[in-house]
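Second attempt. The first submission of Sugar 3,4-ketoisomerase QdtA cupin domain-containing protein had a stray character pasted in from the spreadsheet, which I only caught after the job came back as garbage. Lesson logged: always re-copy from the clean sequence file. Corrected sequence (144 aa) follows.
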Amino acid sequence: MPTYMQNDHSWKKPYLIEFPKIGNPHEGYISVGEGGGQIPFEIKRSFWTYFTPESIVRGRHAHYQTEQVLIAVTGRIVVITELPDGEILTFPLEQANVGVYIPPNVWHTMQYSHTAVQLVLASCPYDASDYIRDYSLFRQTWAK
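This time the job returned cleanly.
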């Protein structure tokens, strides 16, 4: 497990990112996000989830280092985040040109409409040791 300063309360908060929506309803739209622009990190990995049953809650983890931007390319995704100090923020995603930035050290869960497709842009390649999957360990790691 990586070593981080406990009680360092300088963490970032999740926030919405609105990507440009270029086009019109007659021809369609394109949205663009670039690392160093709307996306606050260099993208090292991307993945997507789809056909998730509505009764399933995904996520249920935090990262030590990885930053992510989650986008509902289609459908609806409700992202619930918890900061180390216990603050809970909810982000309903249902527009393809809006994403939510998830910084490290933030517990997050997602619930999907069945037709939702989620695109995730990540700052780090997959590393199992970067995940905190135990909620009590998450609370303990950054307890005041």
